[in-house]
């Protein structure tokens, strides 16, 4: 019978090629062979042909399919038959081709540096898929450019793509490969990886001092490939170089194009600081930059020298000593100290204080006024200038002998009496304890020099029992506890039966403030008694309710006004002579602004313990308030007053011995309109 050597056979062909199916049947001839496809008798088609060929021991039939296609894959049967019997053989034709593209490519999950992808397997093309190739690139690149590949086995439909860059946009696609070839690529998917903290520090950190309390910090962003996301801002840390305290941080939020600069204010002066910078994004802060050191600029010392003391060395010398300011307040390189000192004189002498500079914490002040209160303050200084002044201390030089009396007069009172008058020493150099009047005859009367002691509060002395028409020489000295001062100039006078009009008082300057009472003396002698008159600024002075001239020719002016300032001349005259003296009166003007400038009067020139002051003031219908004024100030500006409002003021002086009586109340009004 007809038979085949096998019952099943696989035949493969690549799509588009020629597939040949062969059946060889053995048996007695004649043998017929018929082809079947999928159970149906196979008919010739245009791209098929069947060729039968007799063999020595049987028959061979060839079924040829040209340009095979996927649909040609099928089961074919070959039926051989002779008169003794028949047999079938099954042939399976598999048309092989590259696989189709994987489909349903999607992102399972992703992080800052990896992506997990998954897809579905495609039609394999009758050839097992050997590998899947995942292609990816930066989304801004082209597929013809820098494309990365990851390969997984053909039995897998998922892959993890590692070593990606944070905060980057990637495009992924996948293709399959089998023994025939590669599929087309799948549709692509886009993924934006998550941000990661910046991978590098800010660059080029620079710190520069703007002033003594300010540093300016500038920098550049981290390297671009280390940004790992959008930089949202920067942390700027700073602390003192020698401090164990943690860094203080300031935050600078930025947007693209922002100036990368921050100003650190309120720092300690002339201090080393360490500064660092960190960038941050949505994932957090990156590494710190290297620490940069900078020093704030110098400034003047912020605190005064302490423990300022003085000791009196001589009537014209004072030793001043002190301790340095605290090191933290020097604010720079301490170059030395300046000692400012000034004699406290009458009526707020505008002369600036004297200055002595040195590097030691002790200084000797020489050539000072004797028995004089000095206001002394000390300042430390740096290259930037003088620091805060110490609280003024008052130091008084020792007493010394006084200078000579400033003026002397001898006037005839009658034929045996002379009135001697003098002015106190210009420089008392202490407390005058007494005066001594000296008299010496000049006309060979054989009389010795004589002297008379006069209490310190007296500046007149009457000498009687003198000889008519004989000349006498007079002079005066002043005493302090130290001793006798030099004599005044000598004056000569002789008693006479003629007594010309003379004034024993002296011309001098006077100062008065508003509403004070002022008395100007004009002590006169003469026989017959002289007539007295006063002239003000060249015009006769008329008495009124404020101005009085008493029987002794003294002029009293009540409630001084600014119009009272000027020259007051007292003139006395009798038939023998005429005499005059002039007072030069200065008025202290008080301003009526919303700030009042009050001028204060020192009690006397370099006299005793210096007085300090309480300024008492009240607004109309308000309560009295009190301010303690510095000892060395002769004026004070009171601010914060209400405009167009009435105020009242008075002063009281005090020292270690007690409080003075108050001054008269000074009413005034600020300018402007009140509320």
Task: Walk me through this protein's architecture.
The protein is mainly beta. It folds into 7 domains: 3-96, Immunoglobulins (Immunoglobulin-like), CATH 2.60.40.10; 109-116 and 127-192, Immunoglobulins (Immunoglobulin-like, Sandwich); 203-295, Immunoglobulins (Immunoglobulin-like, Sandwich), CATH 2.60.40; 306-396, Immunoglobulins (Immunoglobulin-like, Sandwich), CATH 2.60.40; 405-496, Immunoglobulins (Immunoglobulin-like), CATH 2.60.40.10; 508-587, Immunoglobulins (Immunoglobulin-like), CATH 2.60.40.10; 590-669, Immunoglobulins (Immunoglobulin-like, Sandwich), CATH 2.60.40.10.
Q: What's the short story on this structure?
A:
The protein is an all-beta fold and 675 residues long. The protein has no helices and 56 strands. Helices cover 0% and strands 51% of the residues.
């Amino acid at each position: 019978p007809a038979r085949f050597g096998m019952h099943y056979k696989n035949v493969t062909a690549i799509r588009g090629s020629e597939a040949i199916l062969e059946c060889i049947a053995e048996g007695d001839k004649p043998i017929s062979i018929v082809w079947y496809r999928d159970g149906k008798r196979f008919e010739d088609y245009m791209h098929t042909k069947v060729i039968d060929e007799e063999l020595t021991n049987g028959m061979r039939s060839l079924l040829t399919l040209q340009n095979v296609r996927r649909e040609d894959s099928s089961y074919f049967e070959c039926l051989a038959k002779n008169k003794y019997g028949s047999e079938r053989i099954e042939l399976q034709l598999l048309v092989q081709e590259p696989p189709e593209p994987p489909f349903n490519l999607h992102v399972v999950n992703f992080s800052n540096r990896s992506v997990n992808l998954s897809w579905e397997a495609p039609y394999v093309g009758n050839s097992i898929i050997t590998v899947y190739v995942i292609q990816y690139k930066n989304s801004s690149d082209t597929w013809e450019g820098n494309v990365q590949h990851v390969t997984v086995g053909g039995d897998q439909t998922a892959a993890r793509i590692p070593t990606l860059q944070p905060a980057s946009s990637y495009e992924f696609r996948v293709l399959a490969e089998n023994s025939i070839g590669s599929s087309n690529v799948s549709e692509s998917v886009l993924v934006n990886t998550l941000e990661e903290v910046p991978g590098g520090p800010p660059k080029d950190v620079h710190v520069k001092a703007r002033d003594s309390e300010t540093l300016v910090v500038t920098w550049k962003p981290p390297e671009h490939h280390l940004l790992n996301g959008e930089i949202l801002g920067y942390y700027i840390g700073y602390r003192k170089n020698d401090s164990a305290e943690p860094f203080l941080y300031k935050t600078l939020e930025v947007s693209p194009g922002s100036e990368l600069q921050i100003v650190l204010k309120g720092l300690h002066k002339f201090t080393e600081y360490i500064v660092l910078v960190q960038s941050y994004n949505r994932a957090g802060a990156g590494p710190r930059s290297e620490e940069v050191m900078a020093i704030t600029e110098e400034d003047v010392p912020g605190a005064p020298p302490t423990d300022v003391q003085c000791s009196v060395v001589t009537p014209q010398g004072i030793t001043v000593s002190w301790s340095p300011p605290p090191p933290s307040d020097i604010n720079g390189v301490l170059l030395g100290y300046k000692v400012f000192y000034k004699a406290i004189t009458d009526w707020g002498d505008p002369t600036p204080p004297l200055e002595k500079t040195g590097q030691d914490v002790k200084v000797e002040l020489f050539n000072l006024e004797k028995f004089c209160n000095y206001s002394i303050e000390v300042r430390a200084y740096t290259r930037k200038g003088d620091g805060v002044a110490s609280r003024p201390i008052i130091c008084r030089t020792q007493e010394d002998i006084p200078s000579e009396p400033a003026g002397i007069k001898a006037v005839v009172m009658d034929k045996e009496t002379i009135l001697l008058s003098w002015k106190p020493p210009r420089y008392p150099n202490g407390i005058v304890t007494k005066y001594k009047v000296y008299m010496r005859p000049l006309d060979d009367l054989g009389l010795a020099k004589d002297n008379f002691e006069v209490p310190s509060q007296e500046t007149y002395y009457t000498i009687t029992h003198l000889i008519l028409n004989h000349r006498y020489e007079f002079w005066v000295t002043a005493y302090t506890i130290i001793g006798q001062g030099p004599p005044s100039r000598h004056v000569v006078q002789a008693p006479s039966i003629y007594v010309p009009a003379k004034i024993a008082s002296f011309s001098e300057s006077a100062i008065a403030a508003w509403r004070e009472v002022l008395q100007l003396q004009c002590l006169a002698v003469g026989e017959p008694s002289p007539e007295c008159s006063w002239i003000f600024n060249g015009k006769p002075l008329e008495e009124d309710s404020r101005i009085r001239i008493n029987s002794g020719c003294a002029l009293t002016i009540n409630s001084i006004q600014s119009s009272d300032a000027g020259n007051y001349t007292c003139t006395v005259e009798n038939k023998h002579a005429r005499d005059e003296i002039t007072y030069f009166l200065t008025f202290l003007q008080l301003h009526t602004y919303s700030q009042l400038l009050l001028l204060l009067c020192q009690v006397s020139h370099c006299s005793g313990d210096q007085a300090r002051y309480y300024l008492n003031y009240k607004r109309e219908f308000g309560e009295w308030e009190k301010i303690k004024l510095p000892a060395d100030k002769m004026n004070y500006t009171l601010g914060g007053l209400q405009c167009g409002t009435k105020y009242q003021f008075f002063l009281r002086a005090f020292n270690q011995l007690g409080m003075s009586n108050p001054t008269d109340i000074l009413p005034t009004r600020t300018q402007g309109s009140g509320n």
